[in-house]
Amino acid sequence: MTATPQEAASVLAEADCLHDESAVQAALDRMAADITARLGDSNPLVLCVLTGGVVAAGHLLTRLHFPLQLDYLHATRYRGATRGGDELHWLAHPRVALAGRSVLVVDDILDEGHTLAGILEHCREQGAREVLCAVLVEKLHDRRNPHATAEFIGLTVPDRYVFGYGMDYREYLRNAPGIYAVKGL
Q1: For residues 89 and 85, what is the distance between their CA atoms, to the nearest angstrom?
Q2: CATH number of this structure's domain 5-181, picked from the four choices 3.40.50.2020, 3.90.70.10, 3.40.1280.10, 3.40.630.30
Q3: pLDDT tens, the chain, 185 aa long
Q4: What are the extents of the domains in the chain?
Q5: Following DSSP, what letter does each residue of 77-109 receive, concatenated?
Q6: pTM for this one?
């Protein structure tokens, strides 16, 4: 269910700031340095996972000072629901061929990872030479899909409902300039 603008404003006003904007920027700097060291000479294809990965990918890309290609994908298990189903539904496949490429999948958060595991497997099935993942935030808990991994992680957060920097609160607050947790959740 989508929030109202008034509800979103109230949630933001009461939220706990887990990582302020300067901490997020420092994390993006660290991620970019690590990605550059690992992929700087490989002509990688960067795949932004829509919709949440847009903000993280945008901020990360301006820090990567080497040749790369950018594309996007959109896959979901939620289809408008608050809980994911078992099947991955593709709304947009990458347009650029993955075969033989180093692929970097960029997303906002690694939570339970079921959708991300499906995306990474799809990239491998398409013949990518290597598939790596960068996430701005990793949520700390023990419910992770063992096939969902990220080589580049910006920040960690407790097992709470988080939003900001691409992550949403009921379709709002992706643009919040930090990582926040909903009060009480």
Answers
A1: 10
A2: 3.40.50.2020
A3: 899 999 999 999 999 999 999 999 999 999 999 999 999 999 999 999 999 999 999 999 999 999 999 999 999 875 444 445 568 889 999 999 999 999 999 999 999 999 999 999 999 999 999 999 999 999 999 999 999 999 999 999 999 999 999 999 999 999 999 999 999 98
A4: 5-181
A5: S-TTSSS--SS-EEEE--SS--TT-EEEEEEEE
A6: 0.94
